[in-house]
Amino acid sequence: xxxxxxxxxxxxxxxxxxxxxxxxxxxxxxxxxxxxxxxxxxxxxxxxxxxxxxxxxxxxxxxxxxxxxxxxxxxxxxxxxxxxxxxxxxxxxxxxxxxxxxxxxxxxxxxxxxxxxxxxxxxxxxxxxxxxxxxxxxxxxxxxxxxxxxxxxxxxxxxxxxxxxxxxxxxxxxxxxxxxxxxxxxxxxxxxxxxxxxxxxxxxxxxxxxxxxxxxxxxxxxxxxxxxxxxxxxxxxxxxxxxxxxxxxxxxxxxxxxxxxxxxxxxxxxxxxxxxxxxxxxxxxxxxxxxxxxxxxxxxxxxxxxxxxxxxxxxxxxxxxxxxxxxxxxxxxxxxxxxxxxxxxxxxxxxxxx
Length: 354
What we know:
By secondary structure, the protein is mostly helical. The protein folds into two domains: 2-190, Cytochrome Bc1 Complex, Chain D, domain 2 (Orthogonal Bundle); 195-344, Orthogonal Bundle (Cytochrome Bc1 Complex, Chain D, domain 2). The chain contains twelve helices and four strands, in the order ββααααααααβαβααα. It has helices spanning 57-68, 79-82, 141-150, 154-162, 171-187, 195-200, 208-218, 226-229, 259-262, 294-303, 327-338, 343-347; strands at residues 2-8, 14-20, 242-243, 271-272. The strands form two sheets. The chain has a two-stranded antiparallel sheet with strand order 1-2. It has a two-stranded antiparallel ribbon with strand order 3-4. It is globular, with a radius of gyration of 22 Å.
C-alpha cells in the first residue's frame, strides 16, 4: 500500500516523505478506517485534519500505544510521563527546559503549539522529541528501530496505520510516522463535559459564587478575562494568540517568549494564551511555572502586573497593578474557574493506557 505524507519541519523547508511498499494504490476497502472525530461544540467549526495525515482508527490505536509506552526513549520516560491524564494530560512542575508543561487538551483546534508557537502543525510536534539526545526522551533512533522491530505488535500496527514496513523505511520516514500517529491520538483528547459545559446545556446550575465569578470574568471593568480567554462562544477558553501579560518587567533568555521565534522586538515577553479548560488541574501556572495556585494567579492579575515596553494593551490597569479585585471577588473568580474542570475527560478509560 502507498500512503504519502507531507509535513513542515520548520519555516525554512518542507520535507516530503513517501512511506511506501511496491504494491498497488489502496482502495477504500483495504486502507485504514476513518476515525470520526466528534465536535461537541456548537459554537466552533469541526476540527480540521490535514490531508497528509487524516485521523484513522488504526492511527489512533498506534498513537495511543506509543503515547503510553517508553519504547521511544532511552531514559525510561514516555509521553504520558509528563502528560498525566488525571492532570488534564500535563504534570505538576516545569519540564527539563524550564517551561511549564502544556496540557494536551483540545489541541486539534489549535493553530500553533508550545508557549512561543514555534510549531505550527500538531503532526510535527513530536518530531523534536525524536531527535538524538533530546532532553525529554533522550531518543536514539537506531535503538528505537531495533526495539520496534523486536516488539510483538508494533510492526503490524505501523503496517495497519500507514502501510509501511518499519524495517525498510528510512529514519526520517519512521520518525514522521511516529509523530503522525501521536498527533492522531492527541486529536482525540477532547474535553467538553465540565460543570460549566453542563450549565450551558441546561443540565446543572451554578452557585451564586460561581455565577458571580463568571460575571467578574466577563466585565471589562472587573476581571476582564474574556478578551484573551474567550466566553461561552469559545469553548476552547483561549484566543490562541500571544500576549505579554505583565508577568515580568524585563525579559532575557526564555522569558523573551515569542520573540525567540519571530525576532520581532514587538514580540518580546509574549506567550501563547493557555486554555482555561481544566485549569484547576494544570498547576503550576504561567510559562515558567512561577505561580503555584489559582489563588496566586488571580492575586497576580489583581495587584501584581509589571509594566514593560511590550505590555499588552489589554492589560489596561497595569499602572495600578491590575484589576484590583478584593478578596471576595478573587474567591468568586477562582470558584468560576473551577467549574471548567472536566472530570469525565480525566477519567475516560478510552483515553488512558491501552
